[in-house]
Design brief:
Radius of gyration of chain A: 20 Å
Chains: A alpha+beta (about 270), B alpha+beta (about 625), C mainly alpha (about 230)
Strand order of the largest sheet of chain A: 2-1-5-3-4
Oligomer: heterotrimer
Structural class of chain A: alpha+beta
Number of strands of chain B: 19
CATH topology of the domain at 473-611 in chain B: Methane Monooxygenase Hydroxylase, Chain G, domain 1
Distance between the termini of chain B: 42 Å
Largest sheet of chain A: 5 strands, mixed
Structural class of chain B: alpha+beta
Helix content of chain B: 25-40%
Largest sheet of chain B: 5 strands, parallel
Largest interface: A-B, 87 and 94 residues
CATH superfamily of the largest domain in chain A: Alpha-helical ferredoxin
Number of helices of chain A: 8
Shape of chain A: elongated
CATH superfamily of the domain at 473-611 in chain B: Fumarate reductase/succinate dehydrogenase flavoprotein-like, C-terminal domain
CATH architecture of the domain at 473-611 in chain B: Up-down Bundle
Order of helices and strands of chain A: EEHEEEEEHHHHHHHE
Chain lengths: ~270, ~625, ~230
C-alpha cells in the first residue's frame, strides 16, 4: 500500500522545526509503524540524507521508549497499543499520516520525534519508591496482600512511562503518571508507612515541573497504552488532600526541572 | 595464563558464608571516598547501583536510553525463580541448584549456581518489600507457578510483566539513591572504552548521545552490567539498542570472553513476516503449559490448521518426549521445531513456523480460564498477526533470545582485569550452555543486590588506588582511539546502510552459528564474516555528524563490534567439538538426534583473550569440576 | 545531576493552594457550594407556578432573614471568586505547559462538556451578572418597569421579551453542560472515585444537570407560551 508521511523534522532544540512530506510506495500491511519508519530511513540514508530520529528500544510495547502523535492521536488510532506494535493494516491505502512529537513544556524536544522525558524520572526520584534498603526485607509472606489489592496495584504499576498521557492531555498534565505510582505504592501494605510523605513530595515535584493541571476529562487514560484507569488520579488527589491536612513536616523540597544536556567537552 | 575462579574451599552449602567472612571490609567512613562506575541500568546495573549507593559509595550509573527504566530487563515476561517452597511441593535450595546445573548441561560452575539458589530466597523478600506487585492468592499469600518445564512451582510472577515490575522496583531503589545524592544517573550516554591504568580498571570513556561529547569518568572500580549480545543475530527478542560494545571494549582491554558460542534460542516467538522485520516478539514460555505444539504429518500441507484432522497432525514433542512433552527445555524445543521445518513440514507463508494450539485447553478449561491465564499474550499475538488465537492455533518459531556466554568472571564476579566486575547477562557465570526459564531475572538481581556489594568492598579494601586524573597519558590515548574510530565511521561515506550490513551479518550468524552448527559451516561463516567486515569498513554510510544526536553513528559503532564478536563466536563454536545445551554441533549427536556432550574433553569454560588486530584470539580453559551433581545425559523422554 | 532546592518554610494552606491539586479541591468545594445554591434557587423559582402570592411571599421571607441572606451571598461571592481565580491560574499554567501546539489533535475520549468548561464557565458568569442586574438590582429591565418586591411581575414581564428568554435558555443550557462534567469531576478532584461508582456518578451527573436545565427553562418557556402570565 501507499502512504504519505508528513513528519516533523527538527535538528536541535534551538532550531525551528518543520513538517516534511515523504511518499512511501511499498508499505506492507504487516509492518509495524516503526518498521515503516525504518524502511523510510533506509531510503533516506542511501540518498545521503539524515534519517528521521525517533526513540525506540524493546519494540514489544513495554519499555516506553517509543511514542509520537499520528494524526493527532498519541500512539495512533489503536487503543492500548504503542507505535512499535501498531501495524500498518490499520491505515488505508493512500492515507496521509501526520507524525509529530509529544509536545509539552516539560518534554523539551531533542531532535525530530525525540523529546526529553527526564521530568518523569524526577517525579519518581522525589518519592516514587518504598524506602527499603537491600537486606532489610522480611519474608515475602509477612505482609499478606489480598488479591484484589494486588491486582489494583498491578493495574497502576503497569505504567511504562512513555508520556502519552501528557501528550494527549490538552493541559499537558502528568496526573495519570504521578497518580499511577502513588496508587501502586500507596495501596500496598508495604507502602503504607510512607503514603502521606510520598503523596506530598511527588505532587510537589509534579507541580515543580512545567506540567499543566488535570481537568478530569480522561484523554490520558484513553491514550494510555496500558489503559491505566483514571481512578489513580482520584487516589492521588485523596492522598494529597489527606496528607496536606495531617502531615506535620514542612513543605517537600523539590528538584530543579530538566536542564539542557550538558555539553562539557573533555 | 591460568584462571583462578577463587571458589571457596569446603562444603558448597557454606561457601558463600565463608567467602563473605573472608572478605575485607571498607570502613564506613571511607566508603564515600570510593567512586564506582556502573554501566547499564537493567536489573543487575540498577540493583547494584542502588545497593552500593545505600552502602555509601559514590556511584555513577550510565545508560544509553533516556531513562534507566527502559533497560531491556523490562521485557522479561514469565517470572523469577526462588527456592521458597511456599507450595510445599518438594522445592529446596538444593533442588533449584541441581536443576540449574543440569539445565545448563554441566557447563557452569557449581559454586556460583549454589550461591544463586541460596540468594534466590532473599531476592523475593527484597522485591516484595519494594512493592513489586507479585501475583497473590485470594488469601494474600504469594502465588507460584511451574515454568519452563520445572517439576515444582517455584516461579513468582507479576502477570506477564514480571521483568517490568522487578526492574521498576530496582529503578525506584536507584532513584531513591539519586535523591539521596549517592548515585549520579547519567542517561543517554554510551560507554565506548575502558581505561586500564597499571593493570587496574580505573574508568571509562563515554559519549553523550545528545551532544556527541566524549567524557572521561575515573573511578576506583568499574562494574559492567550491560546485558547480552543477542543482537549480533540482527533478528532477536532483544531490544534494538542492546549491544556488546561495553563488553567488547573491555575484552579488547584485556578481559577474557567466555563461551561466546553459548546462545539461547527461545522456542516460542512470533515468526518473521517480511524482509523489513526489525525484531522478533517473544511469546512467554508459560504458553507451553497449556498449548500443544504440532505440525502436519505431510510435507507442504497447505490446508488451514482447523481443517487438518487430528490423525494427520504430528504432536512431535509429545511423541518424542512422552514424559516432558511440550515442556522440554528451550534448547530441545527449539531444535525440534527447526528439524520439522527443515523436513518441509513448517507452517505459515514462509514455512518457518509450527502451531501452538490451545483448542484442547479451551475445551477442557473453558475460554474464560485461558483468557485469565494468557489474555494479555493472546491480545499481543492478535495485535501483531491479526489472527485470533482463541480460534486459530498460534504460529510460533524459535528466535534468538539470551546469551549465556559473556565476559569471564571469578566467584567474586571480577573479570581478568582487576577492578572490572561484570554482572547479569553480560557475564558468563551461572547458566552454562543453556539457561532455564525464569532464571535470568534471578541472576541479574542476585549479582546486583547481594553479591557485588560484598565483592567490590573486598576489592576496594585490599587494593591501593593511585590518584589518576584526566591528564594521565593512558586516558589521552584511550580518548584518542575512541575519537579516531568515530571519525573513521563518519568519513567512509560509502553506499550501504548500517542496517543492511547488520542484517546480512545476522543472517550468517543465524545460519551457521544458530540452532545447529557444523565445523564446515563455521569455517565458511568465519570467512564470510571477514569479507563482509572488510566491506563494512569500505562501504558503510553514516550520515550526519558526530556532534549531535546521530542514531546511525550509534548503530555503526555497535555493528562494528558485532562483526568482531561474530567471528569469535564462530571460532568458539568450531573449537568446541561436542554438543551441549544451546550449542548443537550436528557432528555430535546421539542416534536419535539428541545433543551428545563430551565431558572427557570439553568440561571446561572456554575463555578467549584478545591478542591484537589480525591475531587469532588466545584460548584459556577453566576446568569445571562437579562434586555434587554428576554429569549425566540430560533426558526428557 | 539535579540540584535540590529546599523551599522556604511555608504555611500549609499556602502550599496547598499553590499546588494544582489543591486548587482543584478548592474548585470542587466551591463548585459544590454553587451547585447547592443552583438547587435552592431553582426550588424557590419553581414556586412561580403556584401563583404570585406564593413566590412573592417567599421573596419577602428571604428579605426578613437579611443577615442570613447576606452570609449566604458573601459565601457565594467568595466561592465564585475562588472558583474563578483557581480556574484562571490553572488555565494559564496549562497554556504555558504546551507552548507549541499540535498541528492536529483529536479528542478520543473526553466529553464535549468537559472540553468546553473553559468557556461554558465565563458565559454562565456573564449571564449571572446580567441576571442579577435584571432581577435583583433591576438596572436592566427592558420593555417593562421593575417593581421592587413583586418578583412575579418582574419575572413574567422580563421573560416576555423573547431575547431575554433566549439568552436565559442558552446560558442555562451551558450551565447544564458545566454541571454535567463538574458534578462528576468534583468527586474526582477530592479523591472519591471507585470504578463501580464512576459510571453511576457520571450518569447521575447527566441526569441532575438535565433536570436542572429543564427546571429552569420551564419558567421562560411557560411565560412565552402564556402558561404563566
Amino acid at each position: 500500500m501507499k502512504l504519505k508521511l508528513k513528519i516533523w523534522r527538527q535538528n536541535t532544540r534551538k532550531e525551528p522545526g518543520t513538517f516534511i512530506s515523504y511518499t512511501m510506495d511499498n508499505v506492507d500491511p504487516e509492518m509495524s509503524m516503526l518498521e515503516c519508519l525504518d524502511v523510510l530511513n533506509e531510503t533516506l540514508t542511501e540518498k545521503g540524507q539524515e534519517p528521521v530520529a525517533f526513540e525506540h528500544d524493546c519494540r514489544e510495547g513495554i519499555c516506553g521508549s517509543c511514542g509520537f502523535m499520528i494524526n493527532g492521536v498519541a500512539h495512533g488510532p489503536e487503543r492500548a497499543t504503542t507505535v512499535c506494535q501498531l501495524t500498518m493494516r490499520h491505515f488505508k491505502d493512500g492515507q496521509e499520516l501526520v507524525i509529530e512529537p509529544w509536545r509539552a513544556a516539560a518534554f523539551p524536544s531533542i531532535k525530530d520525534l525525540i523529546v526529553d522525558r527526564r521530568a518523569f524520572d524526577h517525579i519518581i526520584e522525589s518519592g516514587g519508591y518504598i524506602s527499603v534498603s537491600t537486606g532489610q526485607a522480611p519474608d515475602g509472606n509477612t505482609h499478606l496482600v489480598g488479591k484484589e489489592i494486588a491486582d489494583r496495584a498491578m493495574d497502576a504499576a503497569a505504567c511504562i512511562g512513555c508520556g502519552a498521557c501528557v501528550a494527549a492531555c490538552p493541559n499537558a498534565s502528568a496526573a495519570l503518571f504521578t497518580g499511577a505510582k502513588i496508587t501502586h505504592l500507596g495501596i500496598l501494605p508495604q507502602g503504607k508507612p510512607e503514603r502521606d510523605r510520598r503523596a506530598l513530595s511527588m505532587v510537589a515535584q509534579m507541580n515543580a515541573e512545567p506540567f499543566g493541571s488535570c481537568t478530569n476529562i480522561g484523554e490520558c487514560t484513553a491514550a494510555c497504552p496500558k489503559e491505566i484507569p483514571l481512578e489513580v488520579i482520584a487516589t492521588m488527589n485523596r492522598d494529597y488532600l489527606y496528607a496536606s491536612c495531617s502531615k506535620r513536616e514542612d513543605a517537600a523540597a523539590t528538584i530543579a526541572p530538566v536542564a539542557e544536556y550538558s555539553a562539557n567537552r573533555r | 595464563m591460568t584462571l583462578d575462579a577463587r571458589i571457596p574451599s569446603g562444603p558448597i552449602e557454606q561457601a558463600w558464608d565463608k567467602a563473605r567472612f573472608d572478605m575485607k571490609l571498607v570502613n564506613p567512613a571511607n566508603k564515600r571516598k570510593h567512586s564506582l562506575i556502573v554501566v547499564g541500568s537493567g536489573l543487575a546495573g540498577a540493583s547494584a547501583s542502588a545497593s552500593l549507593g545505600e552502602l555509601g559509595y559514590k556511584v555513577k550509573c550510565f545508560c544509553f536510553q533516556d531513562s534507566p527504566r527502559r533497560a531491556h530487563s523490562i521485557a522479561a515476561q514469565g517470572g523469577i525463580n526462588a527456592a521458597k517452597n511456599y507450595p510445599n511441593d518438594g522445592e529446596s535450595i538444593y533442588r533449584l541448584f541441581y536443576d540449574t546445573v543440569k539445565g545448563g548441561d554441566f557447563r557452569a560452575r557449581e559454586a556460583n549456581i549454589y550461591r544463586l539458589a541460596q540468594i534466590s530466597v532473599q531476592i523475593i523478600d527484597q522485591c516484595v518489600a519494594q512493592g513489586v506487585p507479585f501475583a497473590r492468592e485470594y488469601g494474600g499469600a504469594l502465588a507460584n507457578r511451574s515454568f519452563g518445564g520445572a517439576q515444582v512451582s517455584r516461579t513468582f510472577y507479576a502477570r506477564g510483566q514480571t521483568g517490568q515490575q522487578l526492574l521498576l522496583g530496582a529503578y525506584q531503589a536507584l532513584e531513591r539513591q539519586v535523591h539521596a545524592g549517592t548515585v549520579t544517573m547519567i542517561p543517554r550516554t554510551e560507554m565506548l572504552d575502558l581505561i586500564v591504568i597499571d593493570g587496574q580498571a580505573r574508568g571509562i570513556v563515554a559519549r553523550n548521545l545528545v551532544t556527541g561529547d566524549l567524557s572521561v569518568h575515573i573511578a576506583d572500580a568499574v562494574i559492567l552490567a550491560s546485558g547480552g549480545y543477542g543482537n549480533v543475530y540482527y533478528l532477536s527478542t532483544n531490544a534494538k539498542g542492546s549491544n556488546v560494545t561495553a563488553s567488547w571494549r573491555a575484552y579488547k582491554r584485556g578481559a577474557l570472553f567466555a563461551n561466546p558460542c553459548f546462545t539461547q534460542i527461545h522456542p516460542t516467538c512470533i515468526p518473521v513476516s517480511g524482509d523489513y522485520q526489525s525484531k522478533l516478539t517473544l511469546m512467554s514460555e508459560s504458553l507451553r503449559n497449556d498449548g500443544r505444539i504440532w505440525v502436519p504429518k505431510t510435507k507442504g500441507d497447505q490446508r488451514s490448521p482447523n481443517e487438518i484432522p487430528e490423525d494427520e497432525r504430528d504432536y512431535y514433542l509429545e511423541r518424542r518426549y512422552p514424559s516432558f512433552g511440550n515442556l522440554v527445555p528451550r534448547d530441545v524445543a527449539s531444535r525440534n521445531a527447526k528439524a520439522v521445518c527443515d523436513e518441509g513440514r513448517g507452517v505459515g507463508k514462509t514455512g518457518l513456523g509450527v502451531y501452538l494450539d490451545f483448542s484442547d485447553a479451551i475445551n477442557r478449561l473453558g475460554e474464560k480460564t485461558i483468557r485469565e491465564r494468557y489474555g494479555n499474550l493472546f491480545d499481543m499475538y492478535q495485535r501483531i498477526t491479526d489472527e485470533n488465537p482463541y480460534k486459530v492455533p498460534m504460529r510460533i518459531y524459535p528466535a534468538m533470545h539470551y546469551t549465556m556466554g559473556g565476559l569471564w568472571v571469578d566467584y567474586q564476579l571480577q573479570s581478568t582485569v582487576p577492578g572490572l566486575f561484570v554482572l547479569g547477562e553480560a557475564n558468563f557465570s551461572d547458566h552454562g550452555a543453556n539457561r532455564l526459564g525464569a532464571s535470568a531475572l534471578m541472576q541479574g538481581l542476585s549479582d546486583g543486590y547481594f553479591v557485588i556489594p560484598y565483592t567490590v568492598g573486598n576489592y576496594l579494601a585490599t587494593n591501593k588506588f593511585k590518584k589518576v586524573d584526566e591528564l594521565h597519558s593512558e586516558v589521552h590515548s584511550v580518548v584518542a582511539s575512541v575519537q579516531q574510530k568515530t571519525d573513521k565511521l563518519l568519513s567512509i561515506r560509502g553506499k550501504r546502510t548500517v542496517d543492511s550490513f547488520h542484517r546480512e551479518l545476522g543472517k550468517i550468524v543465524w545460519d551457521y552459528c544458530g540452532m545447529a552448527r557444523t565445523a564446515e559451516g563455521l569455517e565458511s561463516a568465519i570467512q564470510q564474516i571477514r569479507t563482509l567486515r572488510e566491506e563494512f569498513w569500505q562501504n558503510v554510510t553514516v550520515p550526519g555528524s558526530g556532534y549531535d544526536l546521530n542514531q546511525s553513528l550509534e548503530k555503526a559503532g555497535r555493528v562494528a563490534d558485532f562483526f568482531e564478536l561474530a567471528e569469535l563466536m564462530c571460532i568458539d563454536a568450531r573449537e568446541r567439538n561436542e554438543s551441549c545445551g544451546g550449542h548443537f554441533r550436528e557432528e555430535y549427536q546421539t542416534p536419535d538426534g539428541e545433543a551428545k556432550r563430551d565431558d572427557e574433553h570439553y568440561s571446561y569454560v572456554a575463555a578467549w583473550g584478545y591478542r591484537g588486530p589480525g591475531s587469532p584470539p588466545e584460548l584459556t580453559k577453566e576446568p569445571l569440576e562437579f562434586h555434587y551433581v554428576h554429569p549425566s545425559q540430560r533426558s526428557y523422554k | 545531576m539535579s540540584a535540590t532546592a529546599v523551599g522556604p518554610r511555608q504555611n500549609r494552606a499556602v502550599t496547598f493552594w499553590q499546588s494544582t491539586n489543591g486548587k482543584k479541591v478548592v474548585m470542587a468545594v466551591t463548585g459544590a457550594m454553587m451547585f447547592l445554591f443552583v438547587i435552592g434557587h431553582l426550588l424557590g423559582n419553581l414556586q412561580v407556578f403556584e401563583g404570585p402570592a406564593k413566590i412573592n411571599g417567599y421573596s419577602h421571607f428571604l428579605h426578613t432573614i437579611g443577615e442570613v441572606l447576606w452570609i449566604v451571598r458573601i459565601t457565594l461571592i467568595v466561592a465564585i471568586i475562588l472558583h474563578i481565580t483557581a480556574t484562571v491560574q490553572l488555565a494559564l499554567r496549562s497554556k504555558k505547559a504546551r507552548p507549541i501546539g499540535y498541528s492536529r489533535k483529536e479528542a478520543i475520549n473526553s466529553s464535549y462538556a468537559s472540553r468546553t468548561m473553559y468557556w461554558s464557565g465565563p458565559i454562565v458568569l456573564a449571564f449571572i451578572i446580567f441576571h442579577l442586574l435584571q432581577f435583583t438590582a433591576g438596572y436592566i429591565h427592558p420593555e417593562a418597569a421593575f417593581v421592587e418586591g413583586d418578583v412575579y411581575h418582574n419575572l413574567v414581564s422580563g421573560f416576555s421579551v423573547w431575547w431575554v428568554s433566549a439568552w436565559y435558555i442558552f446560558a442555562i443550557t451551558l450551565l447544564g453542560f458545566h454541571l454535567r462534567h463538574g458534578l462528576w469531576s468534583m468527586f474526582q478532584s477530592v479523591g472519591l472515585a471507585h470504578p463501580r461508582h464512576t459510571l453511576v456518578l457520571k450518569n447521575l451527573a447527566l441526569l441532575i444537570a438535565t433536570l436542572i436545565v429543564l427546571g429552569y427553562i420551564s419558567i421562560p418557556i411557560s411565560v412565552l407560551l402564556g402558561i404563566v402570565k
